[in-house]
Design a protein that fits this description.
The protein has helices spanning 3-7, 12-56, 63-84, 100-135, 146-177. It has 178 residues and is mostly helical. The protein has one domain. Helix 2 (12-56) packs antiparallel against helix 5 (146-177). The protein is elongated and about 65 Å long. The model has no long low-confidence stretch (mean pLDDT 88).
Length: 178
């Protein structure tokens, strides 16, 4: 029996969900690291462009395309990490202590609602991305295929959906044990 199964009173399903949760946490850590490296790259491109304008009197060709590409990677791959790390914004309401059971139920449903929202956004974005791919749209200066920009967004939303579903399953199985 696995360590997680022993801790959960022998539930293999709970142990499997814990393993998946651990994998998703590691994946989102890596994506966030790559995303932040891309953000540093975007900053470096802007700085180089500014210096090049001062020294050479011209702008760096493709600076806008590359900056947009890097920012898209950073933003899209940071979203799953925020869900994984529970770094989303919460608001404590005045009556939260008095209505503890109600808010506990709401807190348990939030990951499922977030998964639904991210899945819906993924569905809508997928359609738009496929249009971009069909038309063969490219960026203005460097002709970077726009589908690559969309790939960051789509993967970020898909992984966010999975992270939220795993969190919901983990909460659901934890409640069943109690």
């Amino acid at each position: 029996m696995t360590h997680h199964a022993e801790k959960s009173g022998g539930s293999r399903l709970y142990a499997a969900v814990c393993h998946i949760d651990h994998f998703m946490n590691r994946l989102t850590d890596i994506l966030a690291f790559v995303g932040m490296a891309a953000l540093i790259g975007a900053i470096a491109i802007v700085v180089i462009d500014i210096v090049w304008r001062r020294i050479g009197g011209q702008s760096l060709v493709g600076a806008v395309d590359l900056t947009q590409f890097c920012v898209m990677a950073a933003a899209s791959w940071a979203i799953p990490y925020a869900f994984s790390a529970h770094a989303h914004v919460t608001v404590d309401l005045i009556g939260k202590n008095r209505l503890r059971i109600l808010f506990k139920t709401i807190d348990r449903l939030i990951p499922l609602l977030c998964a639904g929202l991210m899945a819906f956004l993924l569905y809508l974005s997928w359609g738009r991305a496929m249009e971009q791919w069909t038309y063969g749209d490219v960026s203005q200066n460097l002709a970077i295929p726009m589908i690559l920009f969309w790939a960051f967004l789509l993967t970020g939303m898909a992984i966010s959906t999975l992270v939220c579903l795993v969190q919901f399953l983990k909460l659901l199985l934890t409640d069943e044990k109690s």
